[in-house]
């Protein structure tokens, strides 16, 4: 069970943009190639198979949080200490 908890599950914002661009490019490319090939052989099923292969490839390359999607991590601020009570006295402006 420790193996599954050791897998990183985050992607930064730049990585999300890269994954989305890659996904769109793969699906678009495979749909165009599938349409052309299906038209040439006059088999709609061939178009669907090629598009399905593109979907699987895109899913394998974009769904897991690969290290190429985690190169620009965000620097989070430290949490504020909530145990401190405000003094209640506000300084007067002069």
The structural class is mainly alpha
Task: Tell me the Rg in angstroms.
Answer: 25 Å
Give me the number of helical elements: 3
- Give a short account of the largest sheet: none
Mean pLDDT: 88
Instruction: Report the order of strands and helices.
Output: HHH
Strand element count:
0
Give the termini distance in whole angstroms: 63 Å
Proportion in helices:
55-70%
Strand content: under 5%
Q: State the low-pLDDT regions, or none.
A: none
Membrane topology: Multi-pass membrane protein
Organism: Papilio machaon
Main location: endoplasmic reticulum
Keywords: Endoplasmic reticulum, Membrane, Transmembrane, Transmembrane helix
Write a structural description.
The chain has 94 residues and is mainly α. It has a domain at 13-69. The chain is built from three helices and no strands. Helix 2 runs antiparallel to helix 3 (44-62). The chain starts with a helix and ends in a 32-residue tail after the last helix. The model has no long low-confidence stretch (mean pLDDT 88).
Would you spell out the secondary-structure blueprint of this structure?
Blueprint: H1 2-5, H2 13-41, H3 44-62
Helix pairs in contact: 2-3
Notable characteristics:
Signal peptidase complex subunit 1, 94 residues, endoplasmic reticulum, single chain, 3 helices, mainly alpha, 0% strand, transmembrane, membrane
């Amino acid at each position: 069970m420790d193996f599954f908890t050791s897998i990183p599950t985050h992607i930064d914002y730049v990585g999300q943009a890269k994954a989305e661009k890659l996904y769109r490019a793969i699906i678009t490319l495979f749909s165009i190639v599938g349409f052309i090939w299906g038209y040439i052989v006059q088999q709609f099923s061939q178009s669907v198979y090629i598009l399905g292969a593109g979907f699987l490839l895109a899913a394998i390359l974009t769904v897991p949080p690969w290290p190429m999607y985690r190169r620009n991590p965000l620097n989070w601020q430290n949490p504020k200490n909530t145990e401190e009570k405000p003094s209640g006295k506000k300084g007067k402006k002069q």
